[in-house]
Design brief:
With 339 residues, this protein is an alpha+beta fold. The protein has one domain: 4-Layer Sandwich (Deoxyribonuclease I, Chain A), CATH 3.60.10. It has helices at residues 30-47, 61-73, 111-114, 167-172, 177-208, 228-232, 238-243, 305-310, and strands at 2-7, 15-16, 22-23, 51-57, 79-83, 91-97, 102-107, 120-122, 131-133, 140-146, 152-158, 214-219, 254-255, 269-273, 278-283, 286-290, 298-303, 329-333. The strands form 5 sheets. Strands 5-6-4-1-18-17 form a 6-stranded mixed beta sheet, covered by helices on one side. β2 (15-16) and β3 form a beta hairpin.
Length: 339
């Protein structure tokens, strides 16, 4: 069974009308929106996933249906859809290819999963006071049933963005740099709070069943390496939190493709880093992490550079000249999942 995860940049801006959708919005006219959507559709068709998980999906299921009809019109597969409840204009989605190697899927409704929507206490402001907090976008948790295989729990995650409004302007002015640092630290504390909460959930699932079959995927807004804030302000590396502690080796999750991709190709996005003064910095923001019981079933995985590049003319041009600002990631699962 092949699983593809992709943050498709602001799909919501392709549409107007929500539950009565049409192509185009205040950001993109209908022609440009269809061109961007066509590029994304062709990438998906080239990757041919059995299960597709998305971040930054449209705000209405009907808008996603309009995109999927567009994909079918270009010769792509049909998909069934599950939409996350949270996210506003950037929803989480899981899509099952009809007739593929994922036989069925559905929302996970067990008590532990339902509790992810509860608030918890965290000091996200750095004022040493615990306050109520909840996910910016509650993780979308589904149970997928592969053909001739055992069910697997898939957690789709899109953590809080690190974006700070007018960040470069604030950072480059010594008088306003403290304001930027404060806003950036708030964002990172919120991401850390979400990572710790999700890891607590994973530990609880494994405590109930140490053979639990779990995949966590999505845009973690974080990855390998130590950025300025981790070096100087002692913030956390989020992906390390989700993978687990070396003090509990039996609970450590495996990365789905890290060892399968050449170091020079280990990135899913490229953005200018004005803090460390690095233009077009390669960043690994999107991940698969796999529970111990099914780590050996990952046959292959990677980052879909070739399919992405084939549908991208300019990353710094108009929106319709690229498929997204993130590249898709993928894994294939073998026995006993796919028979």
């Amino acid at each position: 069974m092949k699983i593809v995860n992709w943050n498709i940049e602001w799909m919501n801006r392709w549409f107007s009308g929500n539950t009565s959708p049409s192509w185009g919005s205040h950001s993109l006219n209908a022609t440009a929106a269809k061109e961007a959507a066509g590029r994304a559709a062709r990438v998906i068709r080239a990757l041919d996933p059995d299960l597709l998980t998305l971040q930054e999906g449209p705000s209405a299921r009907e808008e996603m249906a309009l995109f999927l009809d567009h994909m079918v019109s270009e010769g792509g597969p049909e998909f069934e859809v599950i939409m996350g409840a949270d996210g506003g204009a950037q929803k989480l989605y899981a899509l099952r290819k009809v007739g593929g190697r994922c036989e069925s899927f559905g929302l996970a409704t067990d008590a532990l999963t339902e509790s992810l929507r509860d608030v918890w206490l965290a000091d996200v402001n750095g004022d040493l006071m615990l306050e109520s907090y909840d996910f910016t976008r509650a993780p979308l948790v589904i149970s997928a049933d592969p053909v001739a295989g055992q069910p697997v729990r898939v957690v789709v995650l899109h953590t809080k963005s690190k974006y700070v409004h007018r960040g470069q302007q604030l950072f480059e002015n010594p008088a306003t740099r403290p304001e930027f640092i404060a806003d950036a630290m708030l964002a990172r504390r919120r991401i850390s709070a979400e990572a710790f909460r999700l890891r607590s959930y994973l530990d609880a699932v494994l405590e109930d069943d140490n053979a639990a079959r779990i995949i966590v995927t999505g845009d973690f807004n974080d990855g390998p390496g130590r950025d300025f804030f981790e070096r100087s302000y002692l913030t956390h590396n989020v992906t390390d939190i989700l993978l687990g502690s070396t003090f509990y080796p039996e609970l450590i999750f495996a990365h789905g493709f890290l060892s399968r991709v050449a170091p020079a190709a280990l990135f899913t996005a490229r953005f200018d880093d004005f803090v460390d003064d690095v233009r077009d910095r390669p960043l690994l923001l999107d991940h698969f992490v796999i529970s111990p019981a099914m780590a050996d079933e990952v046959q292959d995985g990677g980052i879909a550079h070739e399919a992405f590049d084939a549908e991208t003319d300019r990353m710094d041009g108009r929106r319709e000249e690229r498929a997204s600002d993130h590249r898709p990631i993928w894994i294939t699962l073998g026995m006993p999942l796919s028979g």
